[in-house]
Amino acid sequence: MQGQEDELFESLRKNLLAMYHGTDSNERRKADRWLQKLQRDTTGWSVADAILGGRTPLVGAQERLGSHAACEALIFAAMTLHVKVCGDIHELSDVQKNGLRDAALEHLARWGCGPAAGSTPPAVVKKIALAVAALAVQTSWDGALMHISQQLEAAESRQAEGLSQQKNIISFSEEAALVEATCRSKRIAIELLAALPEQCEARRLCVSRARREGYQSFLKQNANNAVNAITMVVAQTHNALAILSQHHEKQIKLGTPGEQNGENTFLTQNRGHKNLFDWVKDATQRLNLSALICLQSWISFSEVEAQVLAVNPLFLGTFDAVNHPFLFEVATDVIIEALRAYDCLNALHQPVVAVIAPRVMALRPRFEQANNAGDEDDCFALCRLFCEMGEAYMPLIASTQDANQLTIIELELLCANHPARRVATLPLRFFYNLSRAWSQMPEDEGKMRLREAMIDPFLRLARCCLLQSERTEEDGSAEDFARDEHSLGDDFSRHRADLADCLGDCAFFLGYESVLKIIGERIRQILSIGIDGTPTPRRSTSPIIGGTSVINNNRSNPADALEACFFALRAVSEWVPDTESVILPETIRLLPSLESSWRSAIRAGTACVSAYTFWLRNYARELLEPVVTFLVSVLEANAAAIQRQKQKQIGPNNGRGGRIDAQGHRRLPTGPSPAARALKAVCSTCRRELARLGALDLRDRLVAAGLSHRDELELLEGLGHVISACDQFDDICRGFERLITPPAMALSTLVSRIDAPADTKLVAEELERLTSIVRCTTPSRQHFGLSPSSHDTNSATTTNVATPLTPTINTVLNNAEIANRRHPVLSFIEKLWPVFEAVAERYGDSPQLIERLCRCYKHAMRSCRTQFEPMLEQMIDHLVRHFSKTPLSSYVYASSICITEFGRDSNKHGILFEMLTKLSATVFCLFRSLDDFRQRPDVAEEYFYLTSRFLDYCPDHLVHSPLLESVLRCGIVGLALEHREAQRGILHCFERTVVVAYEAALNASQNGDPSTPDARRAAALATLLVEQQLGRLIADGVLKALTGDLPAYALDEGHGSLVGVLWRLRLFCPNDLPRWCANSLQNVPERYASNDIKSDLMVSIAEDPAVKDSFCDALLLFSARCRDLAKVLR
Length: 1130
What we know:
One of its GO terms (biological process) is protein import into nucleus. It is found in: Nucleus. It holds the Pfam family TPR_TNPO3_IPO13_4th. Belongs to the importin beta family. Helices cover 70% and strands 0% of the residues. The radius of gyration is 37 Å and the shape is globular. α15 runs parallel beside α18 and α27 runs parallel beside α29. Among the domains are: 130 residues, no CATH class; 112 residues; 121 residues; 132 residues. The chain has 1130 residues and is an all-alpha fold.
């Protein structure tokens, strides 16, 4: 037996060494698994107790820990004890639990107050205290607070007794040692006191709801006493330190030999302290720190009465502790917790509110001092405190009563002006909430007076945001920034996103005119400087150029400063109406005259055009052509740059900047440029105006200039919108033919090669061109004699375009001729169908290329909608046939589009169900085991989404067919697949099945006729889910995922989640689900979910009437506990 223990501890030593000091990642992972398994094994109790008791070779009974190995073993033992108490307490009897508590308290005293306490890692004491607290909750130990009180009293008594007995003979060193030992003893008791409310709320603690709530009630009843006890400890320690300080000064005056020079045992053992007094002072500061942490814990998790806390000396002293470097961080956390815990509108909480507000406001000089000293960390913590106060007291700030609102707002504005971005970002949320809270105030004079008072701060905030959005030299290279606004890193991009939101908040509160005026004034200042710092010759009498400068600090070069102005214009675009006629016209006119070297400004200017295309439509007559000319010139310049960079083997500077590859060359960007996106947006919004300007010529011009492929796709989509807006149907057909012919011919040529298949990249590019054109060629349904639909983007009734469709369409042609028109996209698909067949045959082994082919199908069907009917059967046959040959998920997805477009037509339900049946036959042949799912998770995902879509659009054929049972059984097997999206697809299918059943049953119960389609549908699904036990199997699989036996990627995330499936089953099978869950939970080992935890869950599941929030919360809590305790491999 002894040999086995020695072998175990030797293995533990080796694994700890590998874990903490190993360099091989595989060895460290292996050691981690071994250690976790030991923690969850029943031997973990004895191992932890032996190590903490000093009865092992790893940690002996020595007075001081002499090695890293001993410290690491202690940390592991303390962690193991905590883990076991939280999750494996069911392994112990009541007698063993009491014995464990006594042993844990001995360990806490040994390593917190014993001879080795000075070298014990703080984490050891912390974890043991958490373990004792968790055990107190598990066993409802009402004597915990009494025990802590007794420990505090005993420590104080020992100190008083020691000083009184040796009042005349005790040396200063002995007195100091006595005070220091008392501080250590009290700090251990305070650690335990802080752990009690924390562990009572701990999610991973495996305890029943009734026991947890009972202990919570016990702690709340004693919260006031606990806070007073903490305060008394601090006061006693302060008094002891004051007395010791007097003795220390007396010793210095007397010049006691040895002690003054530090030649004594205590100083020899504590060489890190320059003298005994500093040694004791550090001990008292650590006690004060623990006391503040304990106070924070009780404020957070218990209900300390406001009138008690408001006069508590420790809480009041917290505001002074902010000025103490050692206590600063914890002190701010205590104040923040108090801000969150006490509602400013609750009359009972007013005493605390009255204490906090003025004291926090008084910390402004402390913030300014830290700012002047360049202490960013202190500024961040204080700013966080100010923002928390602003959020907590928002109901008072956004009110008509005088609550010193402007002082708080000025304080937040001071933080927003801080040069460090992480500090300046914090208060932006406050201004968002302030603007919204003000907008919800009653419309009266008080609201308007408050607005008048807040106008100036919001104006300054807008100027601040505009200035901070400029690139500085510290941010990075101007060249990189000119290529891409995201090239300077995530911090810069995130900060700019926050600034954009804040500018929108300013526009919301002030009105867009005020923010545009600030931007205009900034543009005037920039244009008066010039790129080389000299005044520019540009002058204007427009409102942009008129006026005086409001910002004098030019932090960046003019190009980047102007870029920031365009960025700000984009930020407020949603607040600017289409009729704005002061700032925007002159700004847009400015774009073509920008210096070609101002690349960042040009890039941002094109993006600004994208944001204001709806505004541009109202000024199309005077500005549309110059804007298009500007965008085309930018694209041509980008194309020329691409050619130059290719020759140098360096990526282009259009769009998103290229990344450096292994050879040091800049790779080509993959996304479209801002200019291409802007041109597409202009084409989409101003399609009718551009159709009259002959915009199709742009394609030939830009392609000849060497436009990048991604930019060309954007251009083709934009031109597709343009041709769709032509008044005459013949013009639409001719324009479409002109656009589609080049890529169609190129694709046909590539596919017709007999000698060798063409490069898949070339084929894919031509398919992408075809898709871009097909996707956006959506003529109005009125051209086909149909009424406009919600999908019609070219109807005058849906676009609010001033010029309607030509009213002579139905007068020139008779209705029959109009009705017989064929959609140009349909004609194209029919004509190129042999080519598509050839692509599927020759490139079936390329999933990427087939994905592009099916994407072309998808957009063709969506463009044509019901007019695709002549090709529907051919398309279905094509997809089914090729899926059986090469089972790729793209074919399944394209099949789901067929259901979307034709599922509402009852005449097509038969052919769609036949399609589903054939696809299912192939799928069932593919997925005969879980390994088969692992080979094709994407196919599983798309197949179950396809089935869900069928249930949404035309469920009856599937509901009354044996196929649905096979689908559900297949999905139950697939739940074990470790693939996030595949599991979501399976769960979505389960959920939609039960939703269809529940809705049908609900409708049938209201109708009362058992022969209705809803009644028959509900009966069929009840047979499947209840009588044939499919519902039980689904519930069992979901519960296994919730407990950790199966993967659980989608707990409660909208459609297709584990909790969502159970909730739907609860609605449809209210009497059966509790029974199914009870049977499933019997198979869950108690080490992962105790009987108390299972009972709590069953109460929530069986609750009648069912309440969704409590039902879902109970399942999520159950899952969190189980999965936290089941992290190691089962």
